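Limitations

Structures in this collection are predictions, not experimental determinations, and the ligand pose is part of the prediction. Treat each record accordingly. The example that follows, with nicotinamide-adenine-dinucleotide as the small molecule, is included so readers can see exactly what is and is not provided: the inputs are given verbatim, and the output is the predicted complex.
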Amino acid sequence: MDDLLGKGAVVTGGGGGIGLATGRILAREGMSVVLADVNEDRLASAVDTCLADGLDIRGKVTDVSDLDSTRALAQFAYDELGGVHVLHLNAGIGAMASLTNDDITGWEQAVGVNYFGVVWGIKAFVPRMLEMGDAGVVIATSSGAGIEGTAFEQPAYASTKAAVLTVMESLHGQLAGTALRAAVLCPPLTATNLAGDPAYMPIVEDMLRAKGVPAALTQPEQVAELVIDGIRNDRFFIRVDESRSKELFDGIVTPEFLQWNERMIRGRAEAQLTDGAPDGYLW
Ligand SMILES: NC(=O)c1ccc[n+]([C@@H]2O[C@H](COP(=O)([O-])OP(=O)(O)OC[C@H]3O[C@@H](n4cnc5c(N)ncnc54)[C@H](O)[C@@H]3O)[C@@H](O)[C@H]2O)c1
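Predicted complex:
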């Protein structure tokens, strides 16, 4: 999809991090953008900085885990923009939740935001996008922690992110023959608020490295460039490879990480084909 000028875009989780950077780059490409976020203050200050930069962006407070709230977002977007051509279902939470203690809140939040946030987004927007008949793309943000290998110490995060891939594969199949397509964003480790503050992400990077994951910390603006590259090249999997690392990430995503990542992906497939255990792709 090449022609973004004058078209409409909606990005959830747009109050900061990857969502805000993506909203900004889409607006710089000439799109009219709605940023949606549950955090009213963060959203307001994000929109203010965008408007100060002359970008065509507005905000809508939305809880993506709530279908009515998401339907209200869709109504707002169609009223404000006239049409939606890029829908980025990106809102997500780190979701620390245990498999063995009695607490179920963390699980409910993880499923609500990371999983239903995508499903409700599809329900609220896709019928209208199909009815309009224009070319468009629905992108959901997943994570390598769920779709490539498994971050087994974060089962709520990893399993909801794995489910996002399956939902988007299903959507891809169901959109065949229409002007719409589906895509999945798999960001590398990125300095955002996901762990509470971007300043904590180098600590997360160190923790991952200590566990043998050769993680490399990237910036949200670089991930936003990856999203644009994915939209322009009609990719289903929007992820970093060697050439995109060089071109879009200044090589920050190292060959060491890419090789590790490939081992995870192949390890999962090989374990299934050889009756193997998951040990080779848990991280
Ligand atoms: N940062 C990383 O390293 C990384 C890696 C892989 C995947 N991701 C994914 O990228 C996406 C964006 O996260 P980020 O890293 O920019 O983190 P972030 O915390 O900076 O941004 C997420 C945004 O989602 C919003 N949000 C949370 N719950 C919401 C809800 N119920 N409704 C609407 N908005 C809600 C938050 O307020 C926040 O502004 C997430 O889905 C995350 O899982 C991030």
